Structure formats: structure tokens, C-alpha cells
Amino acid sequence: MKFIISGKNIDVTPGLRETVEHKLGKLEKYFTSDTEIIVTLSVEKERQKIEVTIPVKGNIIRSEQVSNDMYVSIDLVEEVIERQLRKYKNKLVARHQEGGNFRQEFFESEYATEDDDEVRIVRTKRFGIKPMYPEDACIQMDLLGHDFFVFCNAETDEVNVVYRRKNGTFGLIEPEFQ
User: Fold this and answer.
1) Which CATH number fits the domain 131-173, given the four candidates 3.30.70.3040, 3.30.505.50, 3.20.20.70, 3.90.1150.10?
2) Could you tell me the pLDDT band of residue 118, with boundaries at 50, 70 and 90?
3) The pLDDT of residue 148
């Protein structure tokens, strides 16, 4: 695996680099040797944050963890990514897809085929979409008490999603069809 490690407001010391490579190196049993793992370490006030992104055949495995200690954040991010890999494996096995960057042993192991990680849709909801501006969609989302809202953007005439971010601000998702 190829590690791309960078830091924002933090110097990536040899000790930090070694810890990241050691902890995330445990994932090596799942990936081919040419898989890139992009790691960004950052510090904001008392928050020590690590972001890990692993691009795999049309998808991205990503986790972001925050704590007051960078080493704790590194431990947490490794656990979350392993959990995501178990879910992703079940999806690939269920759809008989090619795994891309994954080693064959990953699919053959019994380690990660637990049913409790299986994705299950338990409710389907249908609703009418009327054209509105993103700001109006945010207000509607607040009125409904939801964390996201799907709407038809009156400016672009496309389906968009507004969502509440962790810091209380709003985000807008505009799909790009390829």
C-alpha cells in the first residue's frame, strides 16, 4: 500500500507517520500493493483530527475521526475503516462484483461475512418534489426537523439535497451525471 500523509496545522513527525503506517498497515491484508491510502492529520484548537480516504474501483472508503489525542483518533479511524470494509465486502459478494483493489483472500475469508453488518432498507418513503430555492429547502428542512431535504432546484431544474453539517451550517449536494 502507498501512504500519502499530509498535515494541516501540524508537523507530521516520524513518530506520527510510523504510527499511521503501522495502524493502517493492518489493512494491507485486504488491499493490493498499489492501493493508495490518503491520510490527512489536522489540529483545530483542542481537536486532533485524522481523515483517511481509500479510492477503490468507483467507490471511496472514507473515515474521519476526532479526539483530543491524535493517537486515539488514529486507533478509532482504523476500527471504523475495518467495519466499513466488512460491509463493502458483503455488498461485493452479494452483487458478484469484481473487487478492484482488494486481494482475493479478502473475499475467501470468513472473517467479514457477518449478517449484522448487512445493509437493510427498512422503510421506503415517496413524496412529491416541487421546485424551490436551496435557501427555502433549508427552511423546509428545519420545519420538518430533518437533517437533510430532497428538492427540485428552481434555478437548475435538477434534484438536489440540502443537509445540516456537523458545525450547524448547511450543505448542498448537486449531482453530476456522467
Assistant:
1) 3.30.505.50
2) low
3) 92
